[in-house]
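>> received
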Amino acid sequence: MRILIIEDQPEILQNIADYLELKGYLVDCAYDGLGGLHLAVTQPFDLIILDLMLPGMDGLTLCRKLRQDARILTPVIMLTARDGVDDKLSGFKAGADDYLVKPFSLPELHARVEAVLRRSQAHMENRLEVADLSYDMSTLEVTRAGKPIKLSPIGLKLLEVLMKKSPHVVKREALQELLWGEDLPGSDSLRSHIHLLRQAIDKPFDSHLLHTVHGIGFCLKVTSHGI
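>> returned
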């Protein structure tokens, strides 16, 4: 597990980093908001520990930019000396997953880290992603580039199998069996549902993800042009 610590007080940062490394985590560090933002959007992390008061860019602004601008869902534990309810609510509204008030013990921080990572891993097991298309199977929410997409139950079933198999081709016969079993409807039914799915996930966007492989089936993948 790789953790990014963004904290401007060197002694606190070093203590956290040393402790988490002893617990087996890989740790990267940043001492200001801009440097932390750069690392967070250019490198993959499993968790971010973020101080609220930072030079260059404060923690609330940084967290909002991660969530709203960069669309990064990496869990965030926010550190702050402010313990008011309004301060905590501001942190959660900005996108923080947990909130720890200074001073805190390192074992408590470690316990929070483990808890947040467990929740994050459980959530990611229920999330499918292909490029900027995302499907949360626990809530049945589909988004592309952050925009919500409404699909019928059949559309959701089609999307799930195509995303799970991406970028590979799923044969037409396999999709028909998934949707209707041995009770196959007319020959144009699958074509109609694929058309509706394509209208929903591709038509409003510049690039197309759903492709027809003629005579074989369909696939979801990133290409420079449609097939």
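>> DSSP finds eight helices and twelve strands in the chain.
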